[in-house]
Amino acid sequence: MKLTYYGHSCFSVFAGGKHLLFDPFISPNELASSVDVDAVKADYIFVSHGHYDHITDVERIAGNTNAMVLGNYELFDWFNKNGIKNTHPINPGGKFSFDFGTVKSVTAIHSSSLPDGSYAGVACGYVFKTADGNFYYAGDTGLTLDMQLIPKWAKLEFAVLPIGDGLTMGVEDAIEAARFTGVNKVVGVHYDTFGFIKINHQEALEAFREAGMTLYLPEIGSTIEI
To answer: pLDDT at position 177, please?
Structure first.
């Protein structure tokens, strides 16, 4: 599978012949200034929770691409009220099949509110089964034993996990999350964007190596094959 990183927790995976985009936060991110938001491809946009650093560019990209926007019911309702027409609700525990494959929403341990201060429902992650392989995006979360349930539903090729600590898991807990989910390939997200989530890249890479795993920290705007 091909994964393109757009900075912070925004990335896309090309799987099942479709561009699956996650948590669009590009235009306000100084580290992603080289990315042309209007050139980002998306057939589906998955939103893990309502914080501004995960939804800022949803409307813009959805308007450009007519991508289907998915999130929990409160996000679904909020996006509808903000003029996005192609939407679909999915709550933790639920799954739906689309033309790319099947997606299941799973628990994430994190706070969630919308930029206007309204309730954004519960945070979530997503697990995907596609003809090209299976993967897990944890969203913003702390380590939780619920992650051990994921391999019961899908054997994963890789996981996308937050590693910036402070507001989410750090490197140590992300390694444990990888063990829980049965992967040895992890793409790190949610780091460096703000001063309080900056990490030492070499120390993070070495910690994963010592655990017998590979950590990918792609350059913003780059595409990698996993």
So the answer is: 98
